[in-house]
């Protein structure tokens, strides 16, 4: 493990995670703080107070941050870079609220529906995945970053060509929390794999149906005695992920583009891998946290190399 | 206006509405009370206290109630009648928690997705619509009852053959209230017709896409400056209703079945009529409250006619 070289940070809407890293991006220490929505404008102060304990030993270190910290509710606005975008453009698009801090920009595109689309934070994970998975750098590759707003991204020779957002995780959370379609579970539990698979497979039987006409099944199959109340959320998750995967594959998949690269937590990538498998489509998981760190380290390297140019 | 003949009631989850009616179902007076979810088991007491002021003049009157009052959280469980079901079967399926009160059963079916489906309350509106709109009694007719859980029902010669539920209204409410996709409006306002139409028309450009991949547009078009923040909810409503209408027409519509009969509030039936028109499909609105009353009156007539049989 090397010497402390920079501070990497993922500063989202609701959480801040800071990492003390060596030059290769290996984590030496970490800390956490309030998200951008709760920072009350005190970004500089929060950052300094969290990094203060690293100062005595490591001195003043440069920082690279990604996420909502670069949005209009963030420390400084790092405007969206239009697609197609290559990794170096993303690094070069960083905006500095002060000399030692760089914030990674998000990406924008016009998606398949002639609608604008945006992402912020995922660009850094994609950057990192390009380093961690050499196969991503050549040809046409399909990425999926499952989450609150799942992002499907198309890479061509390492450039982000376009992407598509689906609020799959948000819809799942809203329906699980507030809807009469699934009973509110008293305790959070892992998604039941069998009920999830059942949701996927039932959805796939009528892939051209609209999701709206399948959601009531979470309740009606329960009322009809076919589905245990505690499995309704997993069935719902199966319907949602199946709809997301089916729709994205129909729009973005072309033969010969290989597996879908799933960047995220193991829990989510496993669910998406199951739904992809139901279409005979391979999945290649990439750890989301590792990808973010690798991306931040890459941005740090790019920024710190041409020192003269930056000081000029 | 005739003499008071019976009490009609729509006792849903969150509201109770009682009507003092003449024999033809014309309303002489009305009252309201707590929904089935808030009745705390005191259905009989609530009913008696609300009808007490009608007693001195009208004497003891029979009552017909529909809605969640007949569910497992209700006064008494009035089991779902399986489809196909004709109006007389629905009236004959009433369950009486006490001698003077009759509660209308809901309907069940197996829908197009081989899933059980259920409705409760809408059966009474369908009954009433059959009386108010003679054309519904012959041939194959498609009904839509838009709401929290929109119901699409297929009638064949006046019998309910099958139906399909879509939680369109619930999804709209959840996303409007809790999602970052649309800004929470400080005041409830009427849906902007132009933004609604824009959502319908944008959806219809890609009818085979999954709804999930269109929802993010409510936010991204706003961020991209194409959609005013105060119109995002109307755009969302357009996407949702378009998805509901497109999906239901593909599944249930056959040529020559005429217009879709829309039973509900004028606000909702107008939105659905717009989405139907975008498919070149006619719409025939039926007032939802009038249909419910006509249905309750019909059940009352059926129950009170064979007095001897009932007393036997």
Please provide a written account of the structure:
Two copies of one chain form a homodimer. Chain A is an alpha/beta fold. Helix content of chain A is 38%, strand content 24%. In chain A, the strands form three sheets. A six-stranded mixed β-sheet of chain A has the order 3-2-1-4-7-6, with helices on both faces. In chain A, strands 12-11-10-13-14 form a five-stranded mixed β-sheet, with helices on both faces. A three-stranded mixed β-sheet of chain A has the order 5-8-9, with no helix packed on it. In chain A, helix 5 packs antiparallel against helix 9 (232-252). The longest helix of chain A is centred in the C-terminal third of the chain and has 21 residues, at 232-252. Residues 308-312 of chain A have low confidence and may be disordered. At the A-B interface, strand 9, strand 12, helix 5, helix 7 and helix 8 of A face strand 9, strand 12, helix 5, helix 7 and helix 8 of B.
Would you kindly provide a brief summary of this structure?
The structure is a homodimer of 312-residue chains. Chain A has helices at 43-51, 55-58, 87-92, 122-132, 168-178, 193-205, 212-215, 217-223, 232-252, 266-277, 288-304, 307-311, and strands at residues 4-11, 15-22, 27-34, 63-66, 81-82, 95-98, 101-103, 107-110, 116-119, 140-145, 150-156, 159-166, 260-264, 283-287.
């Amino acid at each position: 493990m090397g010497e402390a070289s920079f501070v990497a940070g993922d500063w989202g809407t609701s959480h801040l995670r800071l990492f003390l890293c060596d030059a290769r991006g290996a984590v030496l220490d970490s800390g956490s703080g309030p998200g951008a929505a709760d920072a009350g404008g005190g970004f500089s102060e929060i950052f300094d107070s969290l990094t203060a304990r690293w100062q005595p030993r490591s001195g003043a270190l440069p920082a690279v941050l990604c996420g909502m910290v670069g949005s209009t509710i963030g420390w400084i606005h790092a405007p969206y870079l239009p697609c197609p975008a290559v990794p170096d453009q993303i690094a070069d698009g960083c905006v500095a609220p002060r000399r030692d801090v760089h914030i990674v920009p998000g990406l924008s595109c016009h998606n398949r529906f002639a609608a604008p689309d945006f992402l912020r934070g995922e660009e850094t994970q994609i950057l990192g995945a390009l380093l961690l998975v050499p196969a991503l750098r050549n040809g046409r590759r399909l990425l999926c970053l499952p989450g609150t707003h799942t992002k499907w991204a198309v890479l061509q020779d390492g450039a982000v060509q376009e992407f598509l957002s689906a609020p799959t995780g948000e819809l799942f959370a809203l329906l699980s929390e507030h809807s009469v379609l699934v009973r509110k579970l008293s305790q959070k539990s892992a998604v039941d794999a069998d009920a999830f698979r059942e949701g996927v497979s039932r959805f796939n039987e009528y892939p051209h149906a609209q999701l709206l006409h399948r959601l009531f099944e979470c309740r009606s199959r329960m009322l009809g005695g076919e589905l245990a109340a505690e499995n309704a959320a997993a069935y719902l998750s199966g319907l949602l992920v199946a709809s997301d995967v089916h729709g994205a594959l129909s729009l973005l998949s072309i033969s010969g583009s290989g597996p879908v690269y799933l960047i995220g937590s193991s829990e989510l990538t496993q669910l998406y891998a199951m739904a992809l498998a139901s279409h005979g489509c391979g999945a290649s998981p990439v750890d989301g946290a590792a990808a973010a760190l690798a991306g931040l380290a890459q941005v740090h390297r790019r920024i710190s190399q041409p020192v003269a140019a930056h000081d000029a």
